[in-house]
Amino acid sequence: MLLTRRVDNGEWAPITGILDPGEEPAVGAAREALEETGVQVRVDRLASVGASPQVVHGNGDLGVYLDLTFACTWVSGEARVADDENTDVRWWPVGALPPMSDWLRERIDDVLAGETAARFRR
Q1: What is the residue extent of each domain of the chain?
Q2: Long-range CB contacts (< 8 A, 24+ apart) of 103-111?
Q3: Does domain 2-115 have CATH number 3.40.1190.20?
């Protein structure tokens, strides 16, 4: 499992990101993987759909993001820190993942379940 160590909180997490205007979600997922880790991936399937934890923006507005989790397969590239959002990038054995938030761990579990239909989470 390819994980990144985030600059903002120092925690390990799956690759995350925000779509560019007009970008299809699967295309955005592949772009984020390349931008953050230098790894080209093939998006295989949508693993889950859910909502992020509540976010407080700088102006005090509250928001929740629609969260799409994709299962992907490595195509090419050596994993490396390729942006300023992460301090480390590493492949982890699935049975030895580092500690992370329950919210992110659930997304990984959705991918590992291997179900053909996406899971829906609150």
Answers
A1: 2-115
A2: 103/52, 103/53, 104/13, 104/14, 106/48, 107/14, 107/47, 107/48, 107/50, 107/67, 107/69, 108/1, 108/14, 110/47, 110/48, 110/69, 111/47, 111/48, 111/69, 111/70, 111/71
A3: no
